[in-house]
Write a structure and sequence with these properties.
The complex is a heterodimer.
Chain A lengths: L4 E14 L2 E14 L3 E5 L6 H8 L10 E4 L2 E2 L5 H11 E4 L11 H12 L6 H8 L15 H13 L5 E5 L7 H18 L2 E5 L11 E6 L2 E3 L1
Parallel strand pairs in A: 3-8, 3-9, 6-7, 7-8
Antiparallel strand pairs in A: 1-2, 1-4, 4-5, 9-10
Chain B lengths: L1 H10 L1 H37 L5 E5 L14 H9 L1 E2 L2 E2 L1 E14 L2 E8 L4 H5 L4 E4 L4 H10 L11 H7 L4 E5 H7 L6 E4 L2 E9 L7 E4 H9 L7 E6 L5 H11 L4 E5 L3 H8 L1 H32 L1 H9 L4 H37 L9 H28 L2 H6 L2
Parallel strand pairs in B: 5-10, 7-9
Antiparallel strand pairs in B: 1-11, 1-12, 2-3, 4-5, 4-11, 6-9, 7-10, 8-9
The chains are: A alpha/beta, B alpha+beta.
Amino acid sequence: MNDALMIDVAGLHHAYTHGAVVEPVLHGLQLQVRRGEFVVIMGPSGCGKTTLLNVLGLMLTPTQAERLCIAGRDTRGLSDADRTALRRAALGFVFQRFNLLPTLNVRGNVGLPLRLRGAVADGQVDRLIERVGLSAYAHKKPAYLSVGQQQRVAIARAVVGAPALLLADEPTGNLDSANASAILELLSELHREQGQTVVMITHNEQLAIKADRVLHMRDGCFVD
Amino acid sequence: MLALAWANLTHHKLRTALSALAVGIGIMLMLVSRGLADGSLAEVNQRMQSVNAELVILPAQDNIIFTNGAPFRASHERRLLTLSDAHGPLATAVIPVFFGQVQMGGQQQRLFGVDPAQMPLFLASYRVVAGELFDRASAFADRVRAGATAPASMSDPAYAAYIADGLELVIDERLQRVGNYQLGDQVQIMGQVFRIVGIIETGVAGRVFAPLQTLREIVVAGEPTASMYFVKLRPGLDAAATADRFQSEFAADVRVELKSEYGHLLRASFASVSLYLNASSGVALAACFLFILLTMYTMVIERTREIGILKSLGVTRLGLVRLSVHEALLISLGGVAIGLALAYGVRALLAVIKPLLTVDFGGDDWLIAVLVGVAGGTLSALYPGYRAARLDPAVALSRE
């Protein structure tokens, strides 16, 4: 196990099974991401990007993996409870559809990862809300925010616990170009400030310019 | 997790309120039916304890709540009076009671037929607040004791003249207040018109008293029978041992009990009714908690994506079950609070529309309501929580 690597994956296969139909999605992927690296994965719809991100995020158990080390731990054979604990401690997610809890306001959503860890927020939730420019909306529920504001809340929630690895699945996919640029700027700023490893999926070539490395996927494989 | 549960519930205010109301209605039904049973039994027992006697003689096979008619004959009374030890008779007074029924104050009342001469033993420390403990009925009772007999036929005009003095009632203040009765008011009982001649403080054994001799005349043609006896023992006797002594003198169809045990006998007689009430309440509560289960299950189905979000944030399976339980518990405890409020409201309402009913909520009723709420809430949340816990996070997040 290489401690310099945040992600160390080899021989990764995954197939979805629908009754008798088996649909292979990932075909022997190999991926290594250094700690602190900002990696963008691009590719057409259905090429397996989101499946890969779910595997990296420990939300999906792959059909087969020769090596699957995340945040310094071999995750093969981990129990559901251990995977959940690792996810809570080391991972942050930003989704295309924001995935905020509609029942909680901005402060509640941003502070939730800390509460789940049993940590005391100690002002960092409010600082982060201010950092993403939403202080005036701290008591608003997601339904009362614009899509750009909702994604900023989602980013704040993803980074509030300073996770070692931030996984972003098309975070600008639902945004107009102005909001998309602002969100990408925010992500890259936070990456610079907090030094997190970021793996981001996007369709947008222009957004990839902030990345340290751009990987292209097609039909479940990385291509040159 | 509790804050998240609270946020989820307040996000669906109407559904939460309806679920809590459903539980509240179930809790109210349980409390009121228990309260009515407990209150009525406690009141009857308390009133029976006011009689100045130590033993009660009852028909063995009868449910004492529904004891009516007159299974005891004069021979029973004679044996009770004559049973002796070296120091003399064991009983200083044998008090026969002849039960009847009368419709007064808007509901059926047990009519206590007692000898006017023995009324002071029933009155004990309670006062006569108006009129007197029978008027001409005492003279009627004396005539009967002296051997006077009624004309053979009730249609004989002489019969009306014979029994007229005995047609008197004494009632308690509560019944007087509820029925707005006044001295001199007439009440029809078993084809005869009785007149209210006395009002006594609430708390004596019966709410309505009539002369024993009158009821015997009307119901059993003057036969000296009784529905039950109270027995006042000679001072210094051990009541329990003396009860055993009396019991040994009678066949198995007679039951000799300590008056202090009357409450237990009442409860035992009420057991089948209690079972029915508890079963009814249980079914009502089960339906209420099924309502919660359905609510929680619907929430799980509706919130599949949210469950996926929570899982992505690192909420464990147990955490999701706990979230479901917390939500159900909050609904249940809200339902308990509503149920208690409704139960007290119903009690206040009954006090107005059925003032003779006694609804008694003991401390244990509160405890039972809370325990039922907690247990029901927890159980009804387990399956929805289990379903939530089993959801695959990646699949849950992909749901629309």
